Amino acid sequence: MARSVKKGPFIDEHLLKKVQAMNTSGERKVTKTWSRRSTIIPDMIGHTFAVHNGRKFIPVFVSENMVGHKLGEFVPTRVFRGHGQHVAEKTPVPGKA
Questions:
Q1: Contacts 24+ apart (CB under 8 A), 9-18
Q2: How do residues 20-59 score in pLDDT, each as one tens digit?
């Protein structure tokens, strides 16, 4: 279920303060965050966030198309290595010993 429009987008308070401080000072540095649940707002465009995926921090550069999405959507937590692989059995080649 979507969040109420009346409440507005959810952004962790500490992350919002960091973004506003960077916007006022004009800085563009990578910001580490564990807040995958925070919604991307227009103030975040052009900033890079290092979002934690459970094991390491993955850098995410925020562009205009990302507004309204969550930070965690752009950092996968699982690595898909494919479905079971078929391993060919070694059969003896006729004529070779």
A1: 9/39, 9/41, 9/68, 10/37, 10/38, 10/39, 11/38, 11/39, 11/41, 12/37, 12/38
A2: 999 999 999 999 999 999 999 999 999 999 999 999 999 9
